Amino acid sequence: MNIKIDSAVNRYYVQTLGMIFFPGEKFGESEENNPDAPSLYVKTVKTQTGIEAYAEISYGGNTRSSTYISEFSNMRTEERTIKLAVGGAVICAAGELMGYRPAWGMLIGVRPSKVASEMLNAGLSKTRVKKLLNSDYLVIPKKASLATDIAVTEKRIVGDPSVKDCSVYISIPFCPTRCTYCSFVSYTSKRLLSLIPEYLEKLKQDIRSNFDTVKKLGLRVRTVYIGGGTPTILDEGQLEDLLSFISGQTDVDALDEYTLEAGRPDTITAEKFAIAKAYGVTRVSVNPQSLCDDVLCGIGRSHNTEDFFRAYDIAKNSGIRTVNVDLIAGLPADSFKKFSSTIDKIISLEPQNITVHTFCVKKSAEILRQNSQVYSVRGGDAGKCVDYSQIKIQQAGYIPYYMYRQKNTVGNYENVGFSLPDHEGLYNIYMMEEIHSIFAAGAGAVTKLVDNKGKYGSSGNIDRLFSHKYPYEYLREDKNKIFEEAALKFYSEHGML
User: Fold this and answer.
1) In the listed set 86, 101, 116, which residue is the last one of a domain according to the structure?
2) Is pTM, for the whole model, over 0.85?
3) Taking CA 463 as the corner, what is the angle to CA 119 and CA 157, rounded to the nearest 5 degrees?
4) Mean pLDDT lowest for which of 63-67, 247-251, 265-269, 345-349?
5) For the chain, does the N or the C end have fewer beta carbons within 10 angstroms?
């Protein structure tokens, strides 16, 4: 996509707006001379009362333009006002050109409820926040309501966060097979899977280092999350060794939440969940994605529907307090009829958590090599599937408690976590809303140091420390000392010791 900007607006912001209408589009010099690529021109002018933006977009021999004005307000910065003006102009011009208006308007970030949280923290009522999301950000009413309700729920759950709180993430980046849409750092070949024993030894060193750093900083660990990949790809002996080691580093009984992301039903056994229960795990995730076998086959999953029901029965009878089930709306070969049936069956099982994602494809995913047109700006049946899931799940007594969005998601829709009362996934909120620091161990893991000033919804300072992405790189170099020094420096500089 060819973008030209005559404004102080952030270029990445304009690119992301363009990707709402042209998902998967590339940017750079190669696009400037490509006559088939869409082009977008943006200009802003500052007036006495606000910012006036002009946007012109061309594609396929057609051109549309629009002017949009955002007035100054003591509730937002000039930078935010510029973004609102540019967002409105682009949404209106591109919407007319493509015959499509995005449900989330100009909200392009990972956290669509963040804006709602900011307005609630400023003292605005829920009703006022919903109206402003609709009028200022062009969010359709039902999405404005969803964002506001989730912001209220998150604020209730988080309460008054402490600068002395933190969480720990542990990465197991291996899977039995690789899903065609996968964007995570997960590995499946026999050669890479053979690294697991060596990987676990190195991982335990990093876990020990992280907990030592937490103790030096005087922090309290609120949650531990073991994710992947597929952590239950570990055999029973390996899983017990890992969980036993973790219990030697921290008092797992004092945790608010301890999650083992089982994920793949074909890796779940009663023995593994008995081990998890014995070592204090309080939350597991069993992820069918779909209860339609032809859909599962098409996305590269190695389990079928029968495998899921077997695994879910194990989870339900394990004694572990909370069971989460992940689903994906808008998968290739899926349909509203198939997906709505999946939703109804999952609700009938009464898991404590249900998370509904919208199909998203990253640029490195295998499915793009199979079908370069898999991106869909309108999303096909995805919108109906998302709406159905939210209506039916809430009617069954679940509360939406966290939400995030990704780029290149079909229909530009959201991912929402639902929970029965007192079973919310706390780590999900802490991580997504940047409530406190996350100390991460393992390949592909990212430690996030957060200074939120002890306030929910504040935009504090954040530093990210990236571990090596690939297991073989991770095994070659030790970053523990570097990460420890960085954490101590961050907490010292921000007066958090």
Assistant:
1) 101
2) yes
3) 40
4) 265-269
5) C
